[in-house]
Write a structure and sequence with these properties.
The protein is an alpha/beta fold and 244 residues long. The protein is built from 7 helices and 9 strands, in the order E-H-E-H-E-E-H-H-E-E-E-H-E-H-H-E. Helix 1 packs across helix 2 and helix 2 runs parallel beside helix 3. The longest helix has 17 residues. The chain is globular and about 40 Å long.
Length: 244
């Protein structure tokens, strides 16, 4: 049975602080010496979460030893471009926490999108454990949600690939976004469905309708589709969106 438990917070800052603390708890619970693989996202929610995480961890914690950072999606731009999700995380989180370069696995957005997706897929499969279908299992994926219900760079116009039919080519894939920059690389539904935990951070009053449609059992948004593929997907919502 699938479910998307939804937790509302009095403010976006309270949401970010709670998710940051929850991630620390998740890390502390892992067996000593076990590799932990996390996928980050970009956008406004990610920026707020990064600020909360760096406030919690100063100076850099021993708890980040053997924590490996990946990305749920990336825009096909150079890493120094202001649109780069890697750049946002590097300046807002990874640099301040002193994460070693060997633990950072960015999507190379400056490459041709298909090649960037193939290289990112290979690197994730070489780092994280994999299911028997060859799909890597991330410990945690942190996602935002767009005003159309998109997650990562899986937009309503992008067809879904079911995990049972997916091969290694469905780990990351190149997509054409309806938003600029058009060329992007994203984790596919199969990889998101296989993750041990997926937390979706929803902030901004302009997302009320998309959230409502996403939480319906027959919802057609990418978040709704992802929810039906997983056992549990947690959704954290700020006060600007009224409880549904």
């Amino acid at each position: 049975m699938t479910s998307m438990p939804t937790v509302y917070f009095a403010s976006a800052d309270a949401l970010f602080a709670t998710v940051a603390a929850r991630w620390r708890t998740d890390l502390a619970a892992r067996p000593r010496g076990v590799r932990y693989c996390l996928a980050l996202s970009g956008g406004r929610s990610a920026q707020g979460l990064f600020m909360a995480l760096t406030a919690v961890w100063t100076p850099p914690p021993d708890g980040l030893v053997d924590v490996h950072f990946f990305w749920a999606d990336e825009r096909c731009v150079p890493s120094a471009d202001s649109a780069s999700n890697f750049g946002l995380a590097q300046h807002g989180l990874l640099g301040p926490l002193g994460v070693p370069p060997a633990q950072i696995h960015r999507v190379h957005g400056e490459l041709e999108p298909g090649r960037a997706a193939a290289e990112a897929s290979l690197e994730l499969c070489q780092t994280a454990p994999t299911q028997h279908q060859g799909i890597p299992v991330l410990d945690l994926v942190l996602l935002g949600m767009g005003e159309d219900g998109h997650v990562a760079s899986l937009f309503p116009e992008v067809p879904m690939i079911e995990p049972a039919a997916a091969g290694s080519e469905a780990v990351y894939r190149a997509v054409a976004s309806p938003k600029l920059p058009r060329d992007r690389v994203t984790l596919d539904y199969a990889t998101l469905a296989a993750a041990r935990r997926v937390w979706v951070l929803v902030t901004g009053a302009d997302k009320q309708d998309a959230l409502k449609r996403s939480l319906r059992p027959d919802g057609k948004t990418p978040l709704a589709r992802l929810g039906r593929l997983r056992g549990v997907t947690w959704v954290f919502v700020d006060q600007r969106l009224s409880p549904l």
